Amino acid sequence: MAPEKSKILIIGGTGYIGQFVVEASAKAGHPTSVLVRESTAADPLKGKLIDKFKNSGVTLVFGDLYDHQSLVNEIKQADVVISTVGKMQIPDQTKIIAAIKEAGNIKRFLPSEFGIDVDHQNAIEPASSMFAEKVQIRRAIEAERIPFTYIACNCFSGYFLSTLAQPGAAAVPPRDKVTIHGDGTPKGTNEFMHHSLLEIFHLDFVFVAVFNEEHDIGTYTIKAVDDPRTLNKILYIKPPENICSLNELVSLWEKKIGKSLERSYVPEEQLLKLIQESPFPMNVALAVSHSIFLKGDVTNFEIEPRFGVEASETYPDVKYTCVDEYLDRFV
Amino acid sequence: MAPEKSKILIIGGTGYIGQFVVEASAKAGHPTSVLVRESTAADPLKGKLIDKFKNSGVTLVFGDLYDHQSLVNEIKQADVVISTVGKMQIPDQTKIIAAIKEAGNIKRFLPSEFGIDVDHQNAIEPASSMFAEKVQIRRAIEAERIPFTYIACNCFSGYFLSTLAQPGAAAVPPRDKVTIHGDGTPKGTNEFMHHSLLEIFHLDFVFVAVFNEEHDIGTYTIKAVDDPRTLNKILYIKPPENICSLNELVSLWEKKIGKSLERSYVPEEQLLKLIQESPFPMNVALAVSHSIFLKGDVTNFEIEPRFGVEASETYPDVKYTCVDEYLDRFV
Predict the structure, then answer these.
(1) What is the nearest CA distance from B306 to chain A, expressed in angstroms?
(2) Which residue from A44, A123, B121, B194 puts its CA 20 to 30 A from A324's CA?
(3) Is B87 a catalytic residue?
(4) In what helix (H) or strand (E) does residue B197 lie, and over which residues does it extend?
């Protein structure tokens, strides 16, 4: 007999990544509840999503982060809490921690992460302050000895691939010109030899990134919740076929559309200046890009068993969408 | 004999808008101090700016927001405190409020605003949460009865004009294609008649914005600090020549470069969907654009004497840079 699936409460389920986590949870057969504010449920913009939740058997629970007692009550009904709250609510997850502590029954808490591993990064401001908020939440969870998993899903395909990492609005890759932060080329920055090469050639900022499709991020997240291998660990989503540099990404796209793009390279010095000279939120977008592509914060360290596991290795049965397939959507 | 100029302490002076406020303060002859963290002073990226401050007679004071006693001591040396801290530190301005309260000598406090008037806006999430942080700081200042001025400087030219309001990275206006949020046309949305026209033609989202040059923002800010007319008021920077719609902006640019741009319009429904489907920070950039260009949050209300004054009217001696001149820089 298969073990019973844990009951999952998702907070922030109508957000960018939350909706994919909710979908994956319901699909995997977990009794799934989503905490929503009544105002969100009544928002016409969220109507389609709310209907989709209902049709997939998801339970809507009215409440919010700031109502301690009702939060405790809802948490008591669940086994696992997943937070996918947006950037503005990251610090307020202390409210969830307090409620989990009081409820006392939660077997696993996944705070809102869904980016790079904030304990392994060398970001500059203002990205570093943003990452520090997630670090503080991690330390608060650990201090309360709440069982956790942190999902380091790296780059969202829906954001980075649909724009070829151009911090802009159009959700289709460019067909004429492309701007590349840094030099954009080599691969395999985990190897020591490579680091020396970088030093010899003064190519300081040539790191690869990892681009993951949002449904896959949802699927891997839900796989992790009942898994003892991810208990008190970071789940890194770094499937081998999704690791590539910006130049490789652009080349792949050029091949698909049968056309070369004009590539402009932004040296680190110029990017740093641009970050200083851009107001919020563009400075954050650029500083995140600097962290990923010029500091290599996604790929410049080894995942060690004491703190993490890799998702595609841990769950080889998941057929993930690779970068190559993803780009086909836009041809 | 001219009255003595008040002593100004600026917190966040090395940031995007802070540097212009510092420059204007020194230029106007105010004894000017800038609170900087030692790490900021040692940052090579800030070296040039720090040197510029020193050369213009600005005093660097080492310290930070989170060291209450040293903050109180520094505040005791000043008459006026101006905060230009970045987005990530907005909520932490409660530390400045507490220190001003304890010091007891401050004649005027200008918290970090430098955007739209957050008490007159209809923004949607996630912009609304961001604006709410500034609202909370306003209410905390008022509750403590600290004399204040709020600077509503509307859109930074360096961000909005250099890109023609394209939420992207390149700091030069596009020469081929341009994307306009909303329909982009009419002007003069303060008139009632116009509102009716909007309703008749179902043009819901056609507001003008105000684009101000950063040096001018600094100049007007410093003009306000000793002025009884701005005491406990909002200073709106809305010079008549800087008010225009996106379509007017694009037409002006087209005339300058002698070339037509391909204009794509993004209807409100599509923009709302894009906001929902974009991760942080692009969702914030788009929601701010929605607030400005589709809700008209910069121009859809009258400035009433009980809560505010307009800068170019109040200080007619300031020769501000108008939008037309600003765009000449890029031709």
Answers:
(1) 30
(2) A123
(3) no
(4) helix B192-200
